[in-house]
Amino acid sequence: MTRGKTGGKIGNRPLYSLYCYMDTAKEVVRKMLDQIPDDASFEYIQYHIYVQEKIERGLRDIEEGRVLSEEEVEKRMSRWLGR
Question: Is 63 within a domain?
């Protein structure tokens, strides 16, 4: 099983595939704890909770229409990069 920052995965499975979208936060954390090694550090656990929360926030943003078009993203990036 991969340890430390895994880019949104626990072991070989993507974080988002482990949980049902309708699970409560407490249920998600319980399921997550069942999937990680018994000797996982607090940092490792916190990182995965953080990633899961960001995924769920992004999914809510999509459902509520808080998205940008590709053109708007390119326009903003051009301003940030000074192009």
Answer: yes
The Cα–Cα gap between 71 and 75 comes to 6
Helix, strand or coil, per DSSP, at residue 77: helix
Beta carbons within 8 Å of 5's beta carbon, 6+ residues apart = 47
64, burial (CB in 10 Å: exposed 0-12, middle 13-18, buried 19+): exposed
Question: What is the percentage of the chain residues whose pLDDT exceeds 90?
Answer: 46
Single pTM value for the model:
0.62
Q: Quote the DSSP letter at residue 22.
A: T
Q: Is residue 1 part of a domain?
A: no
> Which range, of 9-23, 32-46, 63-77, averages the lowest pLDDT?
9-23
Domain count, the chain: 1
Q: What's residue 59's pLDDT?
A: 86
